[in-house]
């Protein structure tokens, strides 16, 4: 079992969810988060260094069995990737997000007491 965590643009949430559902990946947790990555860590404003604001993002968490890891990751990557022609500012290409895949030690469905891959 794996836990797939993805940070994506807010504007890509609907596209990603629809693509996941089309690939029979229907159990998902969505959270609103903020942060910054490769975007400049400091800027000069009126001659002073300032730290930029945190950028609003969406965090997806999806627990999957081994058979669904590749299709889940591929689906998120394809649906979340920005098309440079869609963006107002070419510099916005940075910031499509990240995906982490981590081992999921255990999963327990509270209602039924099921454990492991059956609980996913």
Report on the structure:
Strand 3 and strand 4 form a beta hairpin. The mean pLDDT is 89. This protein has a single domain (2-119), classed as Alpha-Beta Plaits, CATH 3.30.70.120. The protein contains two helices and six strands. Helix 1 packs antiparallel against helix 2 (69-80). By secondary structure, the chain is α+β, with helices and mostly antiparallel strands. A four-stranded antiparallel β-sheet has the order 2-5-1-6, covered by helices on one side. It has a two-stranded antiparallel sheet with strand order 3-4. 18% of the residues lie in helices and 31% in strands.
Topology:
Elements: E1 2-8, H1 13-22, E2 29-35, E3 43-45, E4 48-50, E5 55-64, H2 69-80, E6 97-103
Antiparallel strand pairs: 1-5, 1-6, 2-5, 3-4
Brief characterization of the structure:
With 120 residues, the chain is of the alpha+beta class. The chain has one domain (2-119): Alpha-Beta Plaits, CATH 3.30.70.120.
């Amino acid at each position: 079992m794996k836990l797939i965590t993805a940070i994506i643009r807010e504007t890509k949430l609907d596209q990603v969810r629809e693509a996941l559902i089309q690939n029979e990946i229907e159990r998902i947790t969505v959270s609103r988060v903020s942060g910054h990555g490769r975007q400049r860590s400091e800027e000069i404003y009126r001659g002073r260094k300032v730290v930029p604001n945190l950028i609003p993002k969406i965090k997806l968490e999806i627990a999957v069995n081994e058979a669904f890891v590749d299709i889940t990751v591929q689906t998120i990557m394809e649906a979340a990737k920005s098309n440079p022609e869609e963006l107002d500012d070419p510099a916005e290409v940075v910031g499509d997000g990240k995906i982490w895949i981590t081992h999921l030690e255990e999963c327990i469905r509270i209602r039924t007491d099921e454990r492991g891959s059956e609980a996913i």
